[in-house]
Amino acid sequence: MFTRRFSIGIAALFCAAAAYAQPAQNFPTKPVQIIVPYAAGGVTDILARIVALRLTDKWKQPVIVDNRPGAGTVIGTAAAARAPGDGHTLLITAFGYTANQILVPNLPYNPQALAPLSILADSYSYLYVNSAVPANNVPELIAYAKANPGKLTFASSGNGSSPHIAAELFAWRTGIDMIHVPYKGNGPAINDLVGGQVSALFDTVATMSFVNSGKLKVLGIGSPKPIARSPNVVPIAKSGVPALADFTAGGWFGMFLPSSTPVELQKKIYADVRAVLETKEVHEAILKAGLEPALMSQADFAAYLKKDLETWGPVIRERKIRLD
User: Fold this and answer.
1) What angle, 0 to 180 degrees and rounded to 10, lies between the N-to-C axes of helices 43-59 and 263-277?
2) In the sheet that 292-293 helps form, which strands lie side by side, from edge to edge?
3) Does residue 15 fall inside a structural domain?
4) pLDDT of 279-293, one tens digit each?
């Protein structure tokens, strides 16, 4: 009797294991949705469409980008957090995922309901100033700001945006007096920077075109070391200012899925996404979009997000950054 019960128990365990692995083996069984909590046409949307196109080919099922902007990415992120954990709903988002955990009281979702899958790309921020600003490097900009309190204005794409938080960290670390000027998007901010209405802006490599035309100057980049795309731009961390020795600024773009997704299915999706990202075609498409291709294991991405929260949380609280 004992032997028979033991055999039945072992058989049940094998059946359970087979059933657990079934979703991974058969995935996907229907179209896959990638939620992007930003408007169509932005860099996160462009990245999502690059990945979706190649995953469609790999999975032999349509992979559809679903733009759900609004409430500082809260709407789309909440939808992904509430989705069933069958692998057919993914989320591609950016820095807002981290910032909203501090900026938004009473989030309508639990961040733990989403499991980080991998970073897909990085985008380091460049420090641009109007050509009339009498500074050609970071130490000179700091000296100018200290000699002219209240005169240095930093533009951003909006309250709580990554350019805003980067500028606040820069000001906090260096002890300069800075006036923040929020705009509704990068376009208006760049226009006023070029026009001289504001002094400085942290922005992507795309704005480098105004440096080439002489309308702006670039004083540094928020990467820990020089990058191949801009080898002559000095990292702010290497500018010789001790308070900025570990300064980084920029944005990450990553993929998440509901935490309820079985581990084996998470591993399968990760392996397929990684295979797509490692192709030369996708690598070049990401670079063309103005981003730096990146890839991390799930564990490394989770650790990265934890450090991200530890880095930016004190800045947001100390500088009293709000979305309104």
Assistant:
1) 110
2) 63-67, 32-36, 89-93, 250-258, 114-124, 292-293
3) yes
4) 999 999 999 998 999
